[in-house]
Amino acid sequence: MDDRIPPHPDVRTVPLQRVLEALVDPVRRSIVTQLCDAPADLKCGGFDIPVSNSTATHHFRILREAGLIRQYYVGTSRMNALRRDEVDEVFPGLLDAIVSADRESSGALSRR
Predict the structure, then answer these.
(1) pTM of the predicted model as reported, rounded to 2 decimal places
(2) 14 phi and psi, to 5 degrees?
(3) CB 43 within 8 Å of CB 4
């Protein structure tokens, strides 16, 4: 086992309140949307987010602790995977609603 891999909670034990608090931040919603749209898992540096690396690390930690993403290493790259199946099983429709709303709000902002 790789000791660089942080702990991941069982999604069934994560309260809905914690998941919603993780998703209230627009940067974290963007991370979730980008993972949803990506054809494969993304390394931490592969996201289009307007924050520093240390702030990005904080956002990834919040998402991981809320059970929304899984992080693992490939070589020296920390990869991120959306835990869609697990989240959908516990909170059906939540990710679809969040991602849809995030895309809509991002589109509205880019049309201004």
Answers:
(1) 0.91
(2) -90, 125
(3) no
